[in-house]
Amino acid sequence: MELLILIFLPLVGALITAAIAKQNASKTIALAFSILTLAATISVLCKFTPDASMQFVVNYPWIQQLGINFHAGIDGISIITIILTNILVPLIVLSTFKHVYKNANAFYALILFMQSGLLLVFTALDGFLFYIGWEAALIPIYFICAMWGGKDRIKINMKFFVYTIAGSLFMLLGIIYLYLQNPANNFDINAFYALNLDSHQQGWVFWAFFIAFAIKMPIFPFHTWQPDTYTAAPAPGTMLLSGIMLKMGIYGVIRWLLPVVPQGVQDWAYLAMILSIIGIIYASVIAFTQKDAKRLVAYSSIAHVGLIAAGIFASYSLGSGGIQGLQGVMVQMLSHGINVVGLFFVLDIISSRLHTNKIEELGGLAKVAPQLAITFLIIVLGTVALPGTNGFIGEFLLLFSVYNYNAWMGAIAGLTIILGAVYMFRMYQKVMLGTTNDLTITFTDIKGTEKIVLYTICVLIIVMGVYPKAVLQLSEASVQHLLEQVNQKLTGLN
Amino acid sequence: MNIIITIAITAFLVLYAGLFKARKALLPLTLTGLLVALGFVAYSWNNPTTYYTMMRVDNFALAFSALSILGTFFIFLLTDRYFAEGSDNVAEYFTLILFALTGIMMMVSYQNMSMLFIGVEIMSVSLYILAGIRKLNFASNEASLKYFLMGAFSTGFLLFGITLVYGATGSFDLTVIQQYLVNNVHSVSPLFYPGVILIMIGLCFKVGAAPFHFWVPDVYEGSPTLIMTFMSTIVKTAGFAAFLRLFAGAFEPLHDFWAPALVVIVVVTLCVGNITALFQKNFKRMLAYSSISHAGYLLFSLVVLTVNSASNVLVYATAYTFASIIAFGVLILVKQKTGSDQIDSFNGLGKRNPLAAIVLTVAMLSLAGIPLTAGFVGKYLMFLNVMEDYQTILVIIAILNALIGFYYYFKVIVAVWFIDGQDIVLNPSFLYKIVLILSAIVTLLLGVYPSLILNLI
Asked: What is the DSSP letter of A240?
C-alpha cells in the first residue's frame, strides 16, 4: 500500500497541477506534492529493514489475458534509487522558483508525471511494468526538453527521442522473448531469474537489454545524443536527465541484466568493460577542450557513468568478491545524482543572470558571490571525489574493483579521474576566481530558494562523505544476495 | 441479419427525408438507426446464428460490426457544421455512407464467398460515388475515377480467385472449402492455389497493402475529409475482418502455402508506407501512407495464425480507428479555419486550442504506438503474435519501421506544440468536442486497461 502511494502520489500531483493554470500556484502545488512524496519515502525508509528481502510488495493482476501483473516491491537496491529520485525532484522543483515558464502548469505536471514513471522503473518486478515505466519516464522529459529548451531544441530532442526509444524497443523484444521462454506465461522477475537459457540465447537477450541501457546511461559509442540534449534542455530538464534518468540504465543493468542472463553478461563483460573505459577516456579528453561549461559537465557525466558501468561489470566478473564494487555503484549513483544536479544548478544560476555559460566570458564570480563560490567549491570537490566528500567512497570502491578485474584498466580509469579533477578545477578557477570583467561585476549572490537548494546539496555531499555507511548498509544485503544468486545460476549452468 | 436490415432501412429513410428537404431530421434519424443496430449487436452477443449458410453472425462478426457501427456513429457526429449552409446533397452523403456500412456488415459476417463479393461491391460502389461527391472539384473527380478503376480491377481479381476456388472445391461455402482442404491435404486441386493468391491480391487492394497501394494516397487526398476518415478506418477494418474470415478460417489448412507470400507483402507494405510517409508535407497524404503501414502491422496477425489472431486485429483496429477519427476531426477543424491541410497549418495549435492539441497528441502517440495508449497495446499484440513463431527478423523490420513511424507522427506533435504559427482559434461545436474527448478517453482507457476488449472474441 505504501508503495502504491509512493508511485501514484506524484501522478495525482501531476493531474492537479495540470488542472490549475496559474504560474505560482502550479509551482507551489508541484513543490507540495514532491515534498509529500519525500515524506512518504522517509516513512518507507523508516519501515525498511536492510536485509535482502523484497519489501512493500504489491502484486495485482493487471492485464490477466497477457500475463501482466502490477508487481512491484522495494529491496536494498531499489531503495537507493528511490531515495535519489525523491530527494532530487523537490530540489529540482525548488530550483525553478526564480524562473518563469510559460504554461507552467504543464511544465510542473510533466516533472511529476516523470517522477511516477521513474519510481515505477525503480520498483517494478514485472518485465512489462518495467517497460511501461521506462517509456512513461521518457515521454514527459521529451516534452520538457523540446518545449522549454534552447536553440535547436526540436531537432536535438527528436534525435534523443528516437535514439532512446530505439533502444527500448529492442529491450521490449528481449522482454517478450523471455516471456515466451517462461513456462508460467508471465513477466514475473523471479520467473525470469529461474529461466535456463543457453549461452547463445543469453547472448542475444544480453544485447537486446544492453543497448537500451547503454543508450540511457550513456556508454560509448551510444552517447552521441547526450551532450546536445543536455545543453539544449532547460535547466530542470538537464537535472532530471543527468541526475535521475541515467540511473535507470544503471539500475536496469543491475536488476534485469545481471541476474537474468548471467552467462550472457559473462561472455560480453569484457567488451562492455572496454567500451566503458573508452567512454571514460574519450569523454574526459573532450571535456577538457570544452568552452561551454554546461557541455563540460555533460561530458564529465559520461566519464563518471563510464566508471560506474565499468564497476558493475568488473564486480560482476569478480564473483562474490565483487560486493565492494557493486556497493560502490550504489553509493556513486546517489552521489553522482546529487553532485551533477548541483553543478547544473550552479550553471543555471550563472546563465540566468549573465546569459552565458562560456567559460572564457566569465571570471571573478567568487568576489561578488562568496556564498555561491563556497557551495560551488564543495560540489566540485564532491565531483572530483575528494576524501571526505560523497564522491570519494564510491569512486574508490569502483576503481578498486576495476583494478582487481584488470590492473591496466584500473590504471587508465584512475588516470582519467585525475584528468577529471584537472578540468573541473580549471573550470572552477576560470569561472569563479581571477578578476571580474564588465559582465561578471553585475553578478549578485545566491539568495532565497537558491540558497536552500545549494546548501541542502552541500550538506548531503558532506554528510554522505563523512558517514557513507548510512547508504552502504541499506543496500549491502541485497547486493550480496544478488551476487550469490548470479553465482549460483552460473555454477548451475557449468 | 436484423443489423443489416436496420441499417439498410435507415439508409432509405434518410434518402426520403432528404427528398422532402427535412434536413434537420437527417442526423438524428441516422444516429437513431445506428443505435438500434448497435442494440441488435448487443442483443445477439454470445448467440451465434446462421442464415441459410450465407451468413454467420458469430461473436467475431458482432465485434467487428460493433466497431464499424460505433466508428460510423462518431464520423456522423463529425458532420456537424461540416456542410456549408444550403449544400443540397447531404442526404446522399448520409445514405451512401449507410449503404457502404451495409456492405461492411456483410463483409464481416459472410459464410459464403458470394456474400463476400456482394458485400465488397455494395461497399465499393457507394464509396466510388462518395469519393467523387464534390462534383465540381477536380481532385475529387480524380479520386473517384482512380478509385473506381483500381477498385474494379481488384474486384476482378477477387472474383477470378473465387471462381478458381469454386472450380477446385465445387462450393462457395467456407465450411465446405475448409473441409475440402482438410480432407485433401496432399491432393489439393492445382486450381486452388492461384485462386487463393488472386483472392489475396484482391483483398490486399481493398485494404491498401503494398504493392497494391498506389490508389490510396491520391484517393484519400482527393476525397472529402469525412469520406477519407470513413475509408481509412471503417472500410479498412472491414477489409481485415473479411481477410481473417477467409484466411484464418477456410484457407487456414493451406497456411504454409500462402504465408510466405504474405510475409513479402507485409515487409513491402511496412517499408513503403513508413518511408514514404516520412517525406510527406501534407497531413492527409501522411495519414494515407501511415494507413498503408498500419495495414502492414495488421497483416502480422495472419502471418502467424494463433487463437488470438482475430482478437488482436480487433484491438489494433479499434485503436487505429479511434486515433484516426481524432486526427481527421482536428484536421477538419483546422482546415475550416486555414483552408490548408499541410502539416504546417497545425503550427502553434497548442497555444490557443489546448483541447484540440491534447487530443491530437494522444492520437499521434497512439498511432505511433507509445505505451499507455491503445496503439501500443495493438502493436504489442502484433509483435507478440509474430514472436511466438520466433520470426525475429520480421519483428526487427517492424521495430525499425515503428521507429520511422515515431519520427513522422512526432512531426505533427512538434508542429502543434513547439513551432509558432498563425494564431488560429478553433471553435469546435459541442458534438465535435464529444467525439474528440470520447475518442481520446477510449484510446487512453484501452491503453491502460486493455482487458476490456482483449479476448472478446
From this structure: I
CB contact under 8 A, A154 and B418: yes
Range of A460's domain? 322-494
Q: What is the per-residue pLDDT for A414?
A: 87
Q: What is the DSSP secondary structure assignment for residue B234, as one 8-state letter?
A: I
Task: Report the relative pairing of strands A68-74 and B49-51 from DSSP bridges.
Answer: unpaired
Query: Which residue from B225, B374, B223 is spatially nearest to B294, judged by alpha carbons?
Result: B374
Q: What is the DSSP letter of A48?
A: -
In a domain, A457, yes or no: yes
Number of domains into which chain A is organized: 1
Cis peptide before A387 (omega within 30 of 0): no
Touching A: B residues 384-443, CB under 8 Å: 384, 387-388, 392, 395-396, 399, 402-403, 406-407, 410, 414, 417-419
Residue A1 lies in a domain: no
Contact B371 A131 (CB under 8 A): yes
pLDDT at res. B90: 84
Residue A381: which of A372, A392, A371 has the closest Cα? A392
Establish if B322 belongs to a structural domain.
yes
Residue A164 in domain = no
Q: Is residue B391 part of a domain?
A: yes
Per-residue pLDDT at A185: 87
Output the pLDDT for position A236. 92
**Rounded CA separation B218/B131 (Å):** 11
Non-local (6+) Cβ contacts of A456 within 8 A are A91
Q: Which residues of B touch A64 (CB under 8 A)?
A: 451
Residue A437 host element (H or E):
none
Domain interval for residue B140 = 2-452
Q: How far does B371 lie from chain A, in Å, by closest CA?
A: 6
Instruction: Measure B61 CA to nearest chain A CA, in Å.
Output: 21
pLDDT < 50 positions in chain A: none
Residue B122 in grid coordinates: 455494395
Secondary-structure breakdown of chain B: helix, strand, coil percentages, each rounded to the nearest 5 = 75, 0, 20
Between CA A136 and CA A147 the distance in angstroms is 17
Predicted pLDDT of residue B338 = 86
* pLDDT for the residue B85: 61
Looking at the DSSP bridge assignments, the partners of residue B55 are B51, B110
Q: B49 pairs with which residues across the strands?
A: B57
pLDDT in tens, B417-433: 888 887 788 888 899 99
Please check whether residue A404 lies inside any domain of the structure. yes
Q: What is the pLDDT of residues B264-297, one digit of tens each?
A: 999 999 999 999 999 999 999 999 999 999 999 9
Taking each helix axis as running N to C, give the angle between helix B392-417 and helix A127-148, from 0 to 180 degrees, rounded to the nearest 10.
30
**DSSP summary character for residue A358:** B
Digit-coded pLDDT (tens) for A227-244? 899 988 999 999 999 999
Distance CA B262, CA B216 (A): 19
Q: Report the C-alpha gap between B166 and B198 in whole angstroms.
A: 13
- The Cα B241–Cα B247 span in angstroms is 10
A165 to chain B, any CB pair closer than 8 A? The answer is yes
Q: Return the pLDDT at B365.
A: 94
C-alpha B70/C-alpha B83 separation (Å) is 22
Q: Is A188 helix (H, G, I), strand (E, B) or coil?
A: strand
For residue B69, give Cα distances in angstroms to A256, B54, B224, B323, B447.
45, 21, 20, 16, 21
Task: Write down the ipTM of this complex.
Answer: 0.91
Quick check: A310 and A451 in contact, CB under 8 A? Answer: no
Residue B104 in contact with residue B96, Cβ under 8 Å? no
Residues of chain B with pLDDT under 50: none
Task: Specify the number of domains making up chain B.
Answer: 1
CB contact at 8 A, A215 and A164: yes
Give residue for cell 547526450: A226
For residues B242 and B107, the answer to whether their CB atoms sit within 8 Å is yes
Residue B457 lies in a domain: no
